[in-house]
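User: Here's a chain of 233 residues. Predict its fold as tokens.
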Amino acid sequence: MTGISRKKNAVYGGAILLILLAVFNVVAFVVPHIKGGTFWTGYAFTMAAFLLEILFAFLAFGKADTLYRTFLGIPVFRLGIVYLVLQVIFGLVCLFVHLLPTWIAVVASVILLGLYLILIITAMMARDEVDKTGNKVKDQTAFIRSLTVDAESLLARAKSETAKAEAKKVYEAVRYSDPLSSEEFSAVETQITMKFASFSAAVEANEVEAVMAVGAELLILIGNRNRKCKALK
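Assistant: Prediction complete.
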């Protein structure tokens, strides 16, 4: 989902909410009612439900710059929709059933609102925790992902069959390496980075002997890293 698509969906969603809000207000003030305490309670809490849905929809999707973050915001948005529907139904009951005591309307509306706020806060906390975990995993896999891209690019630039064969070995070794990294691997990953730079220079210069020698050393370092990954699991 592109940024333009998300903006269009937000506009459409906002338009639907405004239409529903207008319809509710027409029903509230055009249809004859006894405008007592029960009426104003239902009206006030329903209007608050519309405003809260707009607010929490923005909190759910306002900073969703990726499809992943948009997906994380969906539970928050759905909770708001459920609360809005329930409150609109109860609000209409308050509008039409004027014999309903005001205190019952207030207590029921407050309970409904309280449950919604508790659930929405819990959902947002869970969303933030999942997002934080996702960012942590992304950071931990950055080294292998970046090295894989570099190795694949180098393979395409190899000039001789020998260099291509060695570059392919390196690419496959990196590609199938454990993607997770940690501070314990910083020393060997630094060595891999430096050795890969030497290997790249040899491949691009088509220095076959250097390619074979440095490639073998690089494969050993990658193997050492992978063995450390297994040992620490």
